[in-house]
Specification:
Blueprint: H1 3-24, H2 30-33, H3 42-50, H4 52-70, H5 72-91, H6 96-108, H7 112-122, H8 125-136, H9 138-179, H10 189-192, H11 199-206, H12 209-239, H13 247-271, H14 275-295, H15 300-328, H16 334-363, H17 367-384, E1 392-398, H18 407-411, E2 416-422, E3 427-433, H19 439-446
Antiparallel strand pairs: 1-3, 2-3
Helix pairs in contact: 1-7, 1-8, 1-9, 3-6, 3-16, 4-5, 4-6, 4-7, 4-16, 5-6, 5-7, 5-9, 9-13, 12-15, 12-16, 12-17, 13-14, 13-15, 14-15, 14-17
Amino acid sequence: MQSFEIRSLSGLAFLYASRMLGLFMVLPVLALYAPGYSGSTALLAGVALGVYGITQGLLQIPFGLVSDRIGRKPVILVGMLIFLAGSLVAANAESIAGIIVGRALQGAGAVASTIMALLTDLTREEHRVRAMAMVGGTIGVCFAIAMVSGPWIAGKWGLSGIFWITAGLAVTGVLVVLFVVPSPAAPNRLASREALAVPSLLKATLHDRQLLRLDFGIFTMHMVQMACWVSVPVVLETTFQFGRDQHWWLYLATMGLGFIAIVPLILFAESRHKMKPVFVSGVVVLVVAEAVLGLTQTSFPLFAFGLFLFFVAFNLLEACLPSLVSKTAPGGSRGTAMGIYSSSQFLGAFVGGTAGGWLVYSYGLQSVYFFSALAALLWLAAAATMSAPRRWSSLVVKLKEGEQLVGEDYLAIAGVEDLVLIPDKQLAYFKVDKALFDRPGFERLLGRPVG
């Protein structure tokens, strides 16, 4: 990579990571500290935990589309300022309602897809996929840091301390946007289709049953995750008398072991093309984890083992799902598929926080895990019936002025699985099976070589 690209990648990775870290840090502590705020109930604590998801899910795609019209950096700057405002509201809140409003505002700074689109504008094609993977991969790292740092920060400065630190990260993010991240000459709309939703493709993408299974999966996973963290910290403190100042090392141990456990599974899935069996196994582990957490309320070692299984499942599925969406999305619609996928993820967080809070309020702490196990079982049924992903890659052809392609001729070539034509942009998106693709035959039909 050139220094320009390294600078772009570093700045945008920081923006992406600081937002996700700020949203995640309250996860292991909010249920513990919420009773100290006026008007707090278990239900409202759950809403406060997950409410960022509803604003994030609803605004993610619109922010990306606006960035295609007015530019990426202005939209990202507005999003970071909204995130800053939400952090300040929550930091100064004295009631649970104030926390809810602050968290909703934090989620309204929904610029994750716009950050990815700017990254595509600022990187060359040969480095783009790797750069996007590096930025997207910060989610797992941020989740791990948040689970350890959140309890430690809250123990020293309370819940408001987390929001003040988040506000500081937001201010730093604004400065990074202004002074570190370069400005592209113009939005690269060809590359942006890999990062942003395209309105004309939304309907077709929403009718893809394979993608819908994956959208349901990410919705369920984040619903389960958010529901569990309404209960887990409280169970540790009240049932097992495990001091809140010690929670961080339990999360560090179980999550660290979980990361180690999934490495050989991911390598096996990719190298042996066994993504579906590994993915389905991850859902099975999630079901087992929720059952163990629900049935071991009197044994701390078994409850800790349930947390370990949860982190194994969560980390494995977080790694598999984006790859499956990318491999399953029709040609030219990866950005659209990922936009719907991301919205499903955040909406799942909102439903999970709200449902978890209601269950704890109505039926007690244990009910959350049985609800989550049932949801994971439904996901298992959907995952087990999905098709195994093909070894597909995207091929983009820039059409000449007035050039028209006969789709049937190209789809008859070995390895060509799908074709999407964008006449107004003079683009053709092909999805090809790398193992079967007859490149010489394709180039003879096209009349020129392709990259």
